[in-house]
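Repro case for the chain-ordering regression, as requested:
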Amino acid sequence: MNFEEIAVKSHEFVSQYLNGAEVGREVDLFATGMVNSLFAMQLVLFVEREFGFAVDNEDLDYDNFRSINAIADFAGRKLGLGATA
Amino acid sequence: MNMEQASALEEEQRQRLVKCVVWDLDNTLWDGTLLEGGIKGLRPGVLALMKTLDQRGILQSIASKNEHRPALEQLQSLGIAEYFLCPQINWGAKSASIERIAKALNIGLDTFAFIDDQAFEREEVAFSLPRVLCVDANELDSLAARAEFIPRFITEDSARRRQMYMADIKRNAVEEHFEGAQDSFLASLKMKLRIGHACEADLKRAEELTLRTNQLNTTGYTYSYDELNAFRQSEGHHLLVASLEDKYGTYGKIGLVLIALEQDVWVIKLLLMSCRVMTRGVGTVLINHLRNQAREQGVRLLAEMLPNDRNRMMYMTYKFNHFSELEKQGRLVIFENDLSITHDFPAYLIPEIGE
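-- result from build under test --
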């Protein structure tokens, strides 16, 4: 799996969860008020399930989940993909 | 919080209160078998028990193996259909029915009780859902007096809990069929969130919230009415209560925050929300309000967090709202907020800040 595939999957999940809303990859999900407690939880569970690694408390960071690109970067790092787009 | 308090807290969490009673129908709720010759009315004591549970704010539902429509019509003709939320009348396993009810009402299975006259059904549920309390239909007489069925307080909010859940079910049905993005749905609800200092009339509900709320609770600290009353009047604390309403009605008082005020530091000792507002963005708005206040007062903002197997969502809520771990004292995590990052409130939920 590469960065692009991770980003596409994350985008799919986020848009589906937000009922088909158009969400740009750089849009700050938190600042725009899209994220509530349940969505945050679902997002983390999605990342764990889809990309196959456990998200530790240390990884639960705003910067790792703030946007679709941030999620892809974070997942890429965890999966050892190295440099990202 | 020392070890003694921590173990007392764990003990407290073991003594769960029943929040929802699920009834079987044939020979449990009513006398007779509906599809085999009809029924002879409700069993003695059932109606009084239903009313008692309802007044205590305990929700009720049904898991019955029956034909859906005739059973529902029978409940209507008995004039009791409106007592039951999400009734499950089908030929599937009752454990599956109870799981569906728990999901629809969004409350934990360990707060469920299930009443059935048949040992087979009770055993099926006990096997699949060991956290559900199973009760023999022969034991109804003593049920209302059992500790698990007696909430510490009957508040204004508990007496109208059923109506509030019914409004929720209506909202959820609208949400499910809403064409458009999540935030337009939230905007369509026309929510009003009020955040204010607790007054004396709020304290019963505040105590109830500390006892009932497990998932969306940062520390699980429980406080007595008197302790809360002391915090309310103390110079060294802020005790805040949040209430929410929308076009479908009120959610009641759904949030509680206790802050210890020190010289240059505010410490959030407790932040909790009712599960019913999990998808409304209330947590972020509450925290954003506290961040604004701390910034205005020129104080640092810390928070205590006692992670357990149920409140991971609150850990995330803190982390995703610019809190990071400052130190750990045993299980207790101390967070500090990065107040340099600022956010506006979302357009669909701008709080009214009261006195």
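Ordering looks correct now. Chain A has one domain: 3-78.
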